[in-house]
Amino acid sequence: MIKSILLCFFFLFPLLLTLFKKLLPSKWKLPPGPTGLPIIGNLHQLGRLLHSSFHKLSLEHGPVMLLRFGVVPMVVISSKEAAKQVLKSRDLETCSRPKLVANGLFTRNFKDIAFAQYGEDWREMKKLVGLELFNPKKHKFFRYIREEEGDLLVKKLSKSSQTQTLVDLRKAFFSFTAGIIFRISFGQNFRECDFIDMDRLEELVQESETNVFSFAFTDFFPTGLGWLVDRISGQHSRIEKAFSKLTKFFQHVIDEQLKIGQSQDHSNLVSSMLDMINRSTEYGSFKITSDHLIAMMTVSANNLLVSTIL
Fold first, then answer.
1. What is the pLDDT at residue 8?
2. 37: three-class secondary structure by DSSP
């Protein structure tokens, strides 16, 4: 009997909390927005393509609107004028990305530069990227890689044109981008790797990208309820599976780099960061670890898909 009462309370508490908050008058003048449902808020109004869903809602409710994802309120800005004003007047409040379960896992608790919260660590990471990883000298050094991959793409397209063969441009540009990023970031040509091929690489990148930017119920609901729903729905399992695959792949890359030995100039991202880890390089109180290396490799993998889409 007591267990049944506790179970009912566990599931009804978020609903009662939501209804109670709605009855209380707000001291802030909130933006307009669509009416949400109890507990889930406006989550039911979002489709697979978030930007399309936001655009459709903004046509009805305006360029500044309030949505609720579970118990988390979120202001959506969908015009350049409003975005300019918000970024100008609320710079510190909007300069960090939200701390979600998925991107926290994939970036080893936000150890990269893309998802790191604004602060001292982010500033030191930005300095490291500018001075050690992507300085003008290395940018100039990598020019031959960009030229070689560009020539290879043009030759493939020219050959297909001469033979009047259909070309999958998405795959062609993916191969082009992967060739550049792999050689610059990982110091390897993915076409010559024995542990990955283009189809498996594309599948891995798409799967990791989907999960890095996915929403978990834990992000928007009280911890206990969100944790339970994530496991029942399989979301937790999908994120963990994608994370495990990507980590295994990165470990292959690191092992290969250690096997061939680090080059004298430490030109690629992996060899440069391995060198900094071995030298126990510190930037003030900021120390480079293997977690920072994996997180930066994750950013490189995500950039691969984003660059192909753009």
1. 44
2. strand
Task: List alpha helices for the chain, DSSP H.
Answer: 2-23, 50-61, 80-89, 91-94, 101-106, 120-128, 136-141, 143-162, 169-181, 198-212, 217-220, 223-233, 235-260, 269-278, 290-309
Across the chain, mean pLDDT equals: 81
What is the number of alpha carbons within 13 Å of residue 105 lying toward its C-beta? 24
**Whole-angstrom distance, CA of residue 128 vs CA of residue 134:** 9
Residue 181 reports pLDDT greater than 50: yes
Provide CB contacts within 8 A for 113, sequence distance 6+.
Answer: 122, 125, 126, 129, 296, 299
Q: Residue 301, Cβ neighbours under 10 Å: how many? A: 24
DSSP character for 183? I
**What would the DSSP string read from start to end of 49-82?**
SHHHHHHHHHHHH-SEEEEEETTEEEEEE-SHHH
Q: With contact defined as beta carbons under 8 Å apart, do 210 and 203 qualify?
A: no
Give the whole-angstrom CA distance, residue 258 versus residue 86. Answer: 46
| Encoded tokens for 192 | 């010559």
What does the CA dihedral 22, 217, 220, 71 come to, rounded to 10 degrees? 10
What is the Cβ-side half-sphere exposure of residue 32, based on CA atoms within 13 angstroms?
7
Q: Give the mean pLDDT of 156-178.
A: 90
The structural domains of the chain, with segments of one domain joined by +, span 30-95, 120-309
CA distance 258 to 261: 5
Tell me the three state secondary structure of residue 134: coil
Question: Domain 120-309's class?
Answer: mainly alpha
Mean pLDDT calculated for residue range 154-173: 91
Which tokens sit at 8?
Answer: 């009912």
> Tokens in use for 142?
């990598």
